Structures are given as C-alpha cells and as structure tokens.
Amino acid sequence: MTALVQSAAKSTVLPAIMALGLGLGIITIAGHVQASALHDAAHDVRHATGFPCH
Q1: For 5, how many CA atoms within 13 A lie in the half-sphere containing its CB?
Q2: How many helices (H) and strands (E) does the chain have?
Q3: pTM of the shown model
Q4: pLDDT tens, position by position, for the chain (54 residues)?
C-alpha cells in the first residue's frame, strides 16, 4: 500500500512543477513585453478563433 501512495505522490509532483514553471514563464514574459504588443497578440488570437471582440 505504501508503494501505491508513493507512486501517486511522484506522479503529481512533476506535473505540478511543470505547471508552476509554465505559469512563472508566462507571468515573466507578460511582465516584460510592451502593452501594445501583448494587446495585439491577444487581439489576433481572438480573431483567429472567431471570438468577437469589437
């Protein structure tokens, strides 16, 4: 039973670390990019996915 618990714990640690790294990367990049470039990128994605934004 302990091996099962350890296996489950190990299987959740790596995804959590990867999610944390991805989140910090996004925050870091968004914090250093110019506001107009970030807005234009988000605007283009909205149009590409067909989401109305005007």
Answers
A1: 2
A2: 2, 0
A3: 0.51
A4: 566 566 666 788 899 999 999 999 988 887 888 888 888 888 888 888 888 776
CB atoms within 10 A of CB 40: 11
Token look-up 């234009």 returns 40
pLDDT tens-digit profile of 25-39? 988 887 888 888 888
CA distance 43 to 31: 18
Give 52's contacts (C-beta < 8 A, 6+ positions apart): 46
The CA distance from 18 to 54, in Å, is 35
Q: What type of residue is 12?
A: T
